[in-house]
Amino acid sequence: MKWPVKNIQEIKWQDLEIGMAITEPGSSRFYKTGDWRSLRPVVDKKRCIKCGLCYIFCPDAAIYEDDEGYFVANLEYCKGCGICAKECYVQCISMVEEVV
Amino acid sequence: MSKRVGIEVSLSVSEAVKLANVDCIAAYPITPQTHIVEHLSEIVANGEVDAEFIPVESEHSAMSVCCGCSAAGARTYTATSSQGLALMNEIVFIVPSLRLPIVMTVADRSLSGPISIWNDHTDAMSVRDCGWIQFFVENGQEAFDAHLTAFKIAEDKRVLLPVMVHMDGFILTHMIEPIEFLEQDEVDKFLSKNYTPAIQLNPEKPVTMGAVGIPEIYTEAKKAHDVVLHESKKVIIEVWNEFAELFGRRFKPVETYKMEDAEIALLTMGSYGETAQIAIDELRKEGEKAGLIKLRLWRPFPLEEFLDTVSNVKGVGVVDRAITYGTTGGPLAIEIRNALYDVEPRKVVTDFIAGLAGRDVTINDFKYMYQKTKEAVKSGKALPYQFIGVRG
Q1: ipTM of this complex > 0.85?
Q2: Which helix (H) or strand (E) holds A95?
Q3: B6 vs A36, B106, B144, B149, B186, CA distance in Å?
Q4: What architecture does CATH give domain A34-97?
Q5: Looking at the structure, do residues B110 and B208 belong to the same domain, yes or no?
Q6: CATH number of the domain residue B318 falls in
Q7: pLDDT tens string B102-149
Q8: Smallest CA–CA separation between A61 and chain B, in Å?
């Protein structure tokens, strides 16, 4: 099995290494863990004071500072737990339902 | 030249493991255990084989250590029995999924409760679905030979699966039998000196073994495992044939006795085959067309070979050495009935749960099972499964 795997749905049983071994070190960086999120944090940048409290509280270190200094969630890893929205000092983060 | 010696069957297994030039043995040294690993610890301590003997604190740890040793590329062996097998159950399922060619002897004994140390196949059936190659041996010589073939089968690059050798506890493990040993140079002609892994834990070339199987990939992993277990049958037969060519003792997935013109067959696994054979001889003398099928290979199930043996019979009496509570029969009979479902004309399958926890099963018991099967064939109706010798 060659990494990175673009789409896991394309892997056939014949493609697996013996015993499903992973022969490429560091392959976990290709694994996005945020795909089962049901709620997505949306920041209202007009009200955000760039304090970074959400960045500190995020239990998954999924929030990063963008070029303009706003703190936003990396949706490839954000699980939608809502802790950022709960802790936000100015309440500028709303949790919006993911629509499939 | 091979020498023939009278020896406890457990000790002959230790000698076979020594001749296989094993690298690592991990075992829990007290009950339930046989003399196999006890003798192996002496062999290692005496420097007769260059191996690590790792005594651990439980069977769960024993199989865990074996897992690590095998993953690092060591030829690995362990032995267990009944409660010990139950305790290592968690790791038993992991080993074949990692495709680690560990060889393990299971001295088959019943599981508690009631507390028991005697022989039956309850422990074996508790790991029926674990995905190992599993075979049953009938006597001491087979036990010795089977272990040498087990390493070769397990480590074949087309297989890479663990092998469980089932031998009846006490009935075989604690008997003294005449066994023809092989010399080291003879074994070396058959089995390579070392195991060469296809994928190995090695800091020079890191790999991950035992990663999580998320829902998107678990089914694919199971399919791959199932396919390789099915396909291992041809390698098993190939290795057994090679063993026969070198040493003259041949093993087949399904053995038969007087089946050429048999109308009714009994079917056994393990050491009961020898007693059943005497019953068949007596029935033949009485003019009965009786035969015996001995299933040696349990996983992968040798469907084609089994069906070949029963093409002419009208009924099969299955001798189950374990019970699966509250269903349509013992685990062996359920398997046999399923295998025969599409066969025309229909074969009557009767099921006898016999010899639980060391209860003796006599020649007359086998003859009774034969008669019951014959009656069922005559009436065309299969009987509900029954416990042989149960009182009340």
Answers
A1: yes
A2: strand A93-97
A3: 65, 22, 13, 22, 20
A4: 2-Layer Sandwich (3.30)
A5: yes
A6: 3.40.50.920
A7: 999 999 999 999 999 999 999 999 999 999 999 999 999 999 999 999
A8: 22
- Assess whether B237 and B302 both reside in one domain: no
* Side chain identity at residue B129, one-letter code: D
Asked if B216 has any chain A CB less than 8 Å from its own CB, the reply is yes
E strand intervals along chain B: 4-8, 24-27, 52-55, 76-80, 103-108, 133-136, 163-168, 176-180, 254-257, 264-268, 290-295, 297-299, 315-320, 348-353, 386-387
Residue B263 CB partners (closer than 8 Å, separation 6+): B289, B290, B312, B313, B314, B315, B377
With an 8 Å Cβ cutoff, the interface of chain A facing chain B consists of 8-9, 11-23, 25, 27
Query: Using the beta-carbon criterion (under 8 Å), do A9 and B216 form an inter-chain contact?
Result: yes
CB contact (8 A) between residue A18 and residue B99 = yes
Q: Do A20 and B97 touch (CB under 8 A)?
A: yes
Count of beta carbons in the 10 Å neighbourhood of residue A86: 12
With beta carbons under 8 A apart, name residues in chain B contacting A13: 219-221, 223-224, 227
**A to B CB pairs, distance under 8 Å:** 53
Token pair listed for B314: 């009208």
Residue B392 in domain: no
Nearest Cα residue to B279 out of B134, B388, B175: B388
The per-residue pLDDT for range B236-270, each reduced to its tens digit, is 999 999 999 999 999 999 999 999 999 999 999 99
Contacts of B98 in chain A (CB under 8 A): 19, 21
Q: Do you know the residue count of chain A? A: 100
- According to DSSP, the residues that pair with A22 across neighbouring strands are B208
Q: Is the dihedral of CA B299, B300, B303, B306 positive or negative?
A: negative
B100 touches chain A (CB under 8 A): yes
Domain of B307?
254-387
Instruction: Phi first, then psi: give them for residue A45, nearest 5 degrees.
Output: -65, -20
pTM above 0.80, yes or no: yes
